[in-house]
Specification:
about 10% strand, single chain, mainly alpha, 3-stranded mixed beta sheet, globular, 9 strands, about 375 residues, disordered N terminus
């Protein structure tokens, strides 16, 4: 009976991975196929088998000093998330696994040549998502090559974390901390933990924009509160400066996205659309270069992104940011009360998508 129950949960696992997220002409595809199912299960089980309790890793004299420092911080952040942000108090992110690679999974996103609508893959339970995730980068690149051959514009990018939505039982199956969490500034670790825990609070099946925008709003608000409460004023200033730069990046890219979307929806011929698309993308890169060299002091951190800018990259950006301002205003509207905020988000998640979008587009949240 125990083996049957374990097998059932492993099958469910493939349907609830939220960070992993054929007919060549379709823009909706089923991800429920034996090969993909196997790589999902095997990859996740390898990750779980590598995980040890954080306390055990800290007690191990062989643990690297930098890893030790970040894991000690992770305990503080994990407790803060539950006590002050009303995020789940469970076994998630209380174990640690070093995967020996720079990303937890690699996501593949694709869009048509003359559209920003992302190709979606559908799972039982989870619904449809605009990306497909692989534990092996080579497998992700293989899919990307096949999609490009079919005429899709594609982007492959590594992600440091994903969530099983808290749906798997017991501490052994709980999402662990990963070595991919520990890079960057302390606030980046805070944001990752807060973001991933948010997916366990509210999740709307098949609505990537809602889910990721909500989690992004939680990570931004929560990390600012944590820095303030911890008296880390210097880090708070640096974080606010980085957030301003990211906001400028979104302004730049979302403006280009809107212009391209207007073009693609127009009655122009496909040839005219292609010519204008090339002009708009060249204009985007030139505008970025001016911005980089003036406002950003020559920082070339985004060069590679703009060099490869295409419909897939611009399409997936909207999924993570489009509704963030609405969620931030909702947080203010409920008096910055975390339990009330999460409850309202859960209520919205239960609505039909059209009603949910309408509620987030209401004048009070704009």
């Amino acid at each position: 009976m125990r083996a049957v129950r374990a097998s059932a949960w492993v099958l469910l696992l493939t349907a609830v991975l939220s960070g992993c997220a054929t007919t060549a002409a379709d823009d909706v595809d089923s991800a429920w196929r034996p090969g993909y199912l196997w790589q999902s299960v095997a990859g996740h089980l390898r990750m779980l088998s590598a995980a040890r309790p954080v306390d055990a890793v800290l007690a191990d004299p062989a643990t690297n000093a930098d890893v030790r420092e970040r894991l000690e911080l992770s305990r503080t952040l994990r407790d803060y998330a539950s006590r002050h942000l009303a995020l789940p108090d469970n076994a998630s992110y209380r174990r640690y696994a070093d995967l020996g690679r720079p990303a937890a999974v690699w996501n593949v996103v694709a869009a048509p040549e003359l559209s920003l609508k992302l190709k979606t893959w559908c799972f039982p339970v989870l619904g449809c998502v605009g990306y497909r995730g692989y534990f092996d980068k080579t497998e992700a690149e293989t899919l990307a090559t096949a999609l490009r051959a079919q005429g899709w514009e594609v982007s492959v990018y590594g992600v440091p974390a994903y969530s099983t939505l808290g749906k798997l039982p017991g501490s052994v199956f709980a999402d662990p901390l990963l070595n991919t969490f520990l890079r960057g500034a302390e606030v980046d670790l805070a944001r990752l933990i807060f973001h991933e825990l948010s997916h366990q609070v509210a999740y709307a099946d098949g609505d990537t924009t809602f889910n990721e925008s909500y989690a992004t709003a939680v990570e931004r608000i929560g990390s600012r509160q944590w820095l303030q409460s911890a008296g880390r004023s210097e880090q708070l200033g640096a974080t606010e400066s980085l957030d301003r730069r990211r906001a400028e990046f979104r302004t730049l890219t979302m403006g280009a996205r809107e212009r391209l979307d207007t073009l693609y929806r127009s009655s122009a011929s496909d040839d005219d659309k292609r010519r204008e698309k090339a002009r708009l993308l060249a204009e985007l890169r030139a505008e970025y270069a001016r911005w980089r060299d003036a406002s950003w002091g020559g920082d070339r951190a985004f060069d590679a992104w703009f060099d490869g800018a295409n419909n897939a990259r611009l399409g997936v950006l909207a999924a993570y940011n489009a509704q963030v301002p609405a969620f931030e205003r909702l947080f203010e509207r409920v008096g910055r009360d975390w339990p009330r905020f999460h409850a309202e988000v859960r209520r919205l998640a239960a609505l039909p998508r059209r009603e949910r979008d309408a509620a987030l587009s209401a004048p009070s949240l704009q």
